[in-house]
Amino acid sequence: MCTGLPRTACPLRLFALCIILSHAAAYFGLTGREPLVFLPGPFANEPPNSKAHLKQCEQMTLTRRQKRLCRREPGLAETLRESVRLSLLECRYQFRNERWNCSMDGRGSLLKRGFKETAFLLAVSSAALSHALAKACSSGRMERCTCDDSPGLQHREAWQWGVCGDNLKYSTKFLKKFLGQKRVSKDLRAQIDAHNINVGIRAVKSGLKTTCKCHGVSGSCAVRTCWKQLSPFQDTGHLLKYRYDMAVRVHSVTNSATGETELASPRRHSNTGPRPRPTELVFLEESPSFCRPSRYSPGTAGRQCSKDTSCSSLCCGRGYNTALHLTTLSCHCQVRWCCHVECQTCLREEEVYTCKKH
């Protein structure tokens, strides 16, 4: 899997390949309601306390060290499954109106290049795993971690009151160990990948909020407990999409003071900086247009668009076809005594616009 990649970058990029490319065909048309097959389903003839997670870990595309960590941590395989769901759905949602719409086609080739899209994939992947790990701890799905520390409450009390904080501290620590981020590589691409992965982790941290709950008689708030809670992952997705739109192209320079190779942005005016900000997504080369089929995407032909907002960009000047579709919807709904709603079925004619091939 790491053929042709810098050795120091392999655990990082392999992680993204793991949660994006494995069983890729199963994700076409993903809606969030169907079961994922990134991991096999429940093992039918095994008791609940069996070591089924060991089999799940073995069937995943991970490095040897990552598989070892997965085997040690019951619940991690299911957490990886959840991170797949988060990252794929969020990527597709954020790029639903873009020429590159987070399609599975061409992702293997895309991850080998230093495009803005590669930066987003790495960031949203690490963000999804960080978010899923923190949530798995607070929901009791991980054996080696529990709630984030809530001042004045023991864990048992936290569960009782429903104030179990999302354990981002454990999540961040474990994630760095899982990805193998120990030292800065001299390889430019490895530095860029590590930087973008950290942008994803920081984006999750920025959504950590304090939530409080009253425990007094009749909600008097005589006793108030506060804990840390992550914002919905879609908030993180919006932030990372903004980082993508503002991404900075970088190159490498040698720090005259230390002799180390560092990332530098076009704003640089001296031998020591400025470096790209820790919150900025960075890329190495300009992206293709994604208008025509290529090894990076299937192109935009046949994509549905909005006549007033997106057809001009999505169709790349080729124009669009217009068709009339009949859709059914519930209408003239009335509430009947008691607690029953009756609706009629109506037909509505809609204009649908799709990009032309030529």
Automatic annotation (TrEMBL):
GO terms for biological process: animal organ development; canonical Wnt signaling pathway; cell fate commitment; neuron differentiation. Belongs to the Wnt family. One of its GO terms (molecular function) is frizzled binding. Residues 257-279 are annotated as: Disordered. The keyword Cell division does not apply. Keywords: Developmental protein, Disulfide bond, Extracellular matrix, Glycoprotein, Lipoprotein, Membrane, Secreted, Signal, Transmembrane, Transmembrane helix, Wnt signaling pathway. This is Protein Wnt. It is found in: Secreted, Extracellular space, Extracellular matrix. Pfam families: wnt (PF00110). It comes from Cyprinus carpio (Common carp). Ligand for members of the frizzled family of seven transmembrane receptors. GO terms for cellular component: extracellular space. The keyword Coiled coil does not apply. It comes from the Eukaryota. InterPro entries: Wnt (IPR005817), Wnt_C (IPR043158), Wnt_CS (IPR018161). The gene is LOC109063213. The chain crosses the membrane at residues 12-30.
